[in-house]
Amino acid sequence: MPTIVKADPSSPVGAKLPMMAMGGTANTLIGSRNDRKVQRIMRKPWRAGGNRFSHEYAYEAEHADETMGVVTCWLVSD
Question: Rounded distance, CA 78 to CA 71, Å?
């Protein structure tokens, strides 16, 4: 059974899973068809704070020490 844990900025799949969920939109957003380049660029906001792609607003579903998925949340008001 997966465990939900606070996302880690050093997670190797932290930027990759949201990019996969976005599909071609991630390529359009970044302005490149090169998936490796898009993933590299998406890692920056994942590791940083204060943006909607940040680890600060994400949780990882883990099972047997592997990330199975990412849940992202965005606070719209207090």
Answer: 20
